[in-house]
Amino acid sequence: FGGRISDQIGVHWDEFKSGTVSEESADHLTALQDSGRYDYWRVAVDSFEGKPIAGIGAGNFQDAYTLHRHDAKASRYVHNVWLRVLSETGIIGLLLFVGALAVAFATLFRRRGGLSPPLQCLIAGAGAASIQIFAHASFDWIEEFPVNLGIALGVLFLACRLAQPVPEPERRSVWPPIAAVAMAIAVLVLLVSVYFSL
Predict the structure, then answer these.
(1) If exposure means fewest CB atoms within 10 Å of the residue's CB, which of 105, 132, 137, 152 is most exposed?
(2) Any idea what the Cα angle at residue 81 is, between residues 80 and 86, rounded to 5°?
C-alpha cells in the first residue's frame, strides 16, 4: 500500500541528505524537514574526528559550521544533543555526560523495589519525562532552552534522591575511600578536558 519499506527508507534518506521533501513523503511524523540537519551532523562528526579527545570547545559549533558548511543557512546548533556534546567536548565530555545519565537511570531501576506505589509512579514519571526530552533533543536543539534541560536533568536527579533510603538519625554517611578516589579522578578528568578545550 505504501511501496516497499526499503524503497521508502531510501527516499527518506535521500531527502534528508539533500534537504528536500517530496509531496509523497511530506507528512509531519516521518519527514525530517529541516533543510540543514544532515549538514549540521556532518560538521559535528568532522569536528569530533579533528579533535576526538577534548573536542572543539563548548559553544564552538557555530564557528566550525560557519567554516565548513555546505548549506547556505547558518546555524548555531547541531540539532542533536549527543553529537553536540561529542563535537564540543570530545570523547571525555561524552563519557562524563552519558556516565552521569547512566548512573542516574541505574539508580532508579535498582531502587524501584521496596518503595510505595505512589512513589514508584512518581519516579517512573520523572524518568519518562527525562527520556522524552533527551529523545527529542536527539533530533532538535531543545536542550539549548534551560527550561527543557532543567526538567530533563532536574526531575531525573530529584527522582534519584526520592529513591534513596532514608538514613537513620544516628547514622552518619561516610564516603568509603574508593568513592573519594573515584570523585578525585572524575574532577581531574573534567579539569583536563576544560584545559584542552580552551
Answers:
(1) 132
(2) 100
Span 54-73, pLDDT tens digits: 999 999 999 999 999 988 88
Predicted local distance difference test score (pLDDT) of residue 144: 85
pTM (predicted TM-score) = 0.67
- The single-letter DSSP state of residue 71 is S
Q: Give, as one character, the DSSP assignment of residue 142.
A: G
Q: In the structure grid, which three cell numbers stand for residue 12, read together?
A: 527518506
Give the Cβ contact number of residue 5 at 10 Å.
Answer: 8
Distance (Å, rounded) from C-alpha 35 to C-alpha 118?
45
Going 36 to 41 to 46 to 50, the CA torsion angle's sign is: positive
Task: Say how far apart CA 11 and CA 9 lie, in whole Å.
Answer: 5
Counting Cα atoms < 13 Å in the Cβ hemisphere of 126 gives: 25
Burial bucket for residue 176 (CB in 10 Å: 0-12, 13-18, 19+): exposed
Looking at the chain, how many residues does it have?
A: 198
pLDDT at residue 65, rounded to an integer: 92
